[in-house]
Design a protein that fits this description.
about 375 residues; mainly alpha; 14 helices; Glypican_CS
């Protein structure tokens, strides 16, 4: 009653043993593919982690640099500006990690929060009554009167251009892991399971437990079994080319490091622009929001020193680390271009087939 290992000679196999063999080949094939995938997946996961660590380091440096701008140049608003600055960099981080947000909404939200502070601490330092209603009015007015000139829009344009490649790279790396995970659990067809049993276990039914499949026979069976996985080849090659393009974009014109460290200067220029146009802004705000109560100068207890920016050394190290990681990673990924095209050859390599002996199993007999 054998279905797969039918042979003219007497056999020691039963139908139940054939079923056990089918379960065994399915398990072994999954394990073999997992072992092949492991190195590739390990490299991608490692690069995501290394990239995120270097990126977080650059982000902290840029945030400290921006905070120190308020501490050194705009002390009257340093304490209150700390929260909007923190929010801005959190939003940038979330954007790069793929959150449903935009650079524009992050930057404009920051300038909405900044305008009430600039207006009440720098342009009109005598204002004491900064009620919630008045603050909200200033926030909304910012969108109409554009106190920061073209600097806020320029910052959106620059950051969007620079951060896009980083966001795409993180998404592309995550997609790569998803693809690899899916191929690990690709179901074997019934025909494939039977072909694998015939190749690996049917010799056992004749007591030939040491004989192994012929190389050509193994390749034919594996290629048939992995036809659906091999179809990924063209897409995988295209995927590697896209990764190469993105890493080159990041290293060239879309330089993440330049974008993040330039935030401080953009904010400084924007504040200076608002101060220069202070009288016109005050006249417009008075018409729209009314005149707030005025009092003495700000008390000094609202000024809390902000930690000085991290040493430039940290930035240089993070910058170099990011560049090295990009280079190492793309060189490795370029070597994996043929990963899905050569998967059958790699599975037939090693202990599975007979290489040095003159005899091997061809599916029917020992040859």
């Amino acid at each position: 009653d054998l279905q797969i290992c039918q042979h003219r000679a007497p056999t020691c196999c039963t139908k139940k043993m054939e079923e056990s063999y089918q379960a065994a080949v399915r398990r072994e094939r999954t394990q073999s593919i997992q072992a092949l995938n492991f190195e590739l997946k390990y490299m991608i996961v490692g690069h995501i982690t290394a990239f995120q660590e270097a990126f977080e380091s650059l982000l902290r440096f840029a945030e400290n640099r921006t905070s120190s701008l308020f501490e050194t140049a705009y002390r009257p608003m340093a304490k209150e500006a700390a929260e909007p600055v923190k929010e801005l960099f959190t939003d940038i981080s979330l954007y790069i990690l793929g959150a449903e947000t935009t650079v524009e909404s992050a930057v404009l939200r920051f300038f909405d929060s900044l305008f009430p502070l600039v207006y009440s601490r720098l342009i009109n330092p005598g204002i004491t009554d900064l009620s919630e209603d008045y603050t909200e009015c200033l926030r909304l007015t910012r969108q109409d009167i554009n106190p920061f000139g073209h600097y806020s829009k320029n910052m959106v344009t620059e950051l969007s251009k620079y951060l896009w490649a980083s966001r795409m790279l993180i998404q592309a790396l995550s997609l790569g892991i998803e693809v690899i995970n899916t191929t690990e659990h690709a179901a074997l067809t019934k025909e494939c399971s039977k072909a694998l049993v015939k190749m690996q276990y049917c010799p056992h039914c004749q007591g030939l437990t040491l004989i192994r499949p012929c190389v050509g026979y193994c390749l034919n069976v594996m290629r048939g079994c992995l036809a659906s996985v091999s179809e990924l080849d063209a897409h995988w090659r295209e995927y590697i080319s896209t990764l190469e393009y993105l890493t080159n974009e990041m290293a060239a014109s879309h330089d993440l490091e330049i974008a993040l460290t330039g935030i401080r200067n953009s904010i400084n220029e924007a504040i200076l622009h608002a101060q220069l146009n202070g009288p016109q802004l005050s006249a417009t705000v008075d018409k729209v929001c009314g005149q707030p109560r005025r009092g003495g100068d700000l008390s000094s207890d609202s000024i809390v020193p902000v930690k000085e920016a991290t040493e430039a050394q940290t930035f240089v190290m993070a910058h170099a680390s990011l560049n090295n990681k990009r280079r190492e990673f793309i060189n490795y990924m370029k070597r994996s271009r043929t990963f899905y095209a050569s998967i059958a050859e790699r599975l037939c390599d090693g202990d599975l087939v007979m290489r040095d002996s003159s005899t091997c199993w061809n599916g029917e007999d020992v040859v």
